[in-house]
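Is this the right way to post structure tokens for a design question? Let me know if I should format differently. Anyway, here goes:
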């Protein structure tokens, strides 16, 4: 059978931008392996991520609204899919490698904790007491490399690690797209979910921001990125769009992410995760597959990995099992 991967690689060379990351020029994987005869290396990476257990667990992890009962609120999985859609649109418009962009987008939050960023902050605080720290993107790479052993390409790994604004720029333009796609996605859907829940009224959004984004913020921001990144060696927005995007983030941080309702729920998150952390530190035998050798750092890592991998409902169920008396049945 003809090697269809080679055919796809030739198409990339013919049709993609000179600035695109070509799959045939990938720096490769940490462990050498035979490549698929049908899929390019980035297509293969995308599929491995989708079939991973960590990806499936994202459907029951918080985006903003903790363990939502209502069907239409975003979860970490639907957020990931929205990031992927936005990123692929930008990559396609710029003639960059859409497969690489999609793989990074789908993998960028694999290491996220239960209860969204509130959970991340609590785990980080607990670990810092022991000289360690927690970043969900670092954990995502740990999931990819060590826990799921997906053996992804260097370009996908780099994009996953460096998607937050607080980390260095990704080495590829495809990786840089995820920085923008991630923030565009969560600003848009967090506003949408907050309006639906009643936490926010549209009139409360500063008028200068409303005037800029109109009723289609994703469309406005994506077109701005495409317009300002074409033919450039860096993915970028106009100063105006960047100012609005960052302004909306600051507004949402104050109004929703750390607002009165969120603060009350975040205290519950802190109580839940702290109780789980202390329990597993004292009862390492309860961590599946962990062999206690008395090495405290390894125990901390095992507790971190187990709690970070939990879904909201699993963490709640375990916490209730530890904290709530069981009914007595004769």
């Amino acid at each position: 059978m003809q090697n269809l991967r080679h055919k796809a690689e030739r198409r990339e060379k013919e049709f993609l931008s000179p600035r695109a990351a070509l799959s045939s020029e990938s720096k490769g994987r940490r462990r050498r392996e035979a490549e698929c005869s049908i899929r390019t290396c980035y297509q293969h990476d995308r599929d491995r991520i989708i079939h991973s257990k960590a990806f499936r667990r994202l459907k029951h992890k918080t985006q903003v609204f903790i363990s939502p009962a209502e069907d239409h609120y975003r979860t970490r999985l639907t957020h990931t899919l929205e990031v992927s859609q936005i990123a692929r649109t930008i990559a396609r418009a710029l003639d960059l490698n859409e497969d690489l962009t999609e793989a990074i987008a789908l993998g960028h939050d694999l290491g996220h904790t239960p209860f969204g960023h509130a959970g991340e902050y609590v785990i980080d605080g607990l670990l810092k007491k022991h000289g360690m720290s927690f970043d969900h993107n670092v954990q995502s790479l740990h999931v990819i490399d060590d826990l799921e052993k997906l053996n992804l390409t260097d370009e996908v790994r780099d994009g996953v690690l460096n998607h937050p604004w607080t980390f260095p720029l990704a080495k590829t333009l495809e990786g840089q797209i995820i920085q923008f796609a991630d923030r565009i996605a969560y600003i848009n859907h967090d506003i949408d979910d907050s309006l639906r829940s009643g936490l926010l009224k549209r009139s409360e959004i500063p008028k200068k921001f409303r005037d800029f984004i109109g009723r289609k913020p994703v469309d406005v921001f994506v077109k701005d990125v495409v317009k300002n990144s074409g033919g450039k060696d860096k993915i970028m927005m106009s100063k105006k769009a960047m100012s609005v995007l960052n302004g909306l983030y600051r507004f949402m941080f104050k109004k929703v992410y750390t607002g009165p309702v969120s603060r009350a729920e975040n205290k519950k998150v802190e109580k839940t995760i702290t109780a789980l952390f202390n329990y597993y530190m004292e009862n390492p035998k309860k961590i599946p597959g962990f062999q206690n050798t008395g090495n405290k750092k390894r125990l901390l890592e095992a507790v971190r990995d187990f709690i970070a991998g939990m879904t909201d409902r699993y963490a709640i169920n375990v916490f209730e099992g530890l904290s709530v008396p069981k009914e007595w049945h004769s």
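Format looks fine. Someone answered above. Worth noting: Residues 173-197 form the longest helix (25 residues). The radius of gyration is 21 Å.
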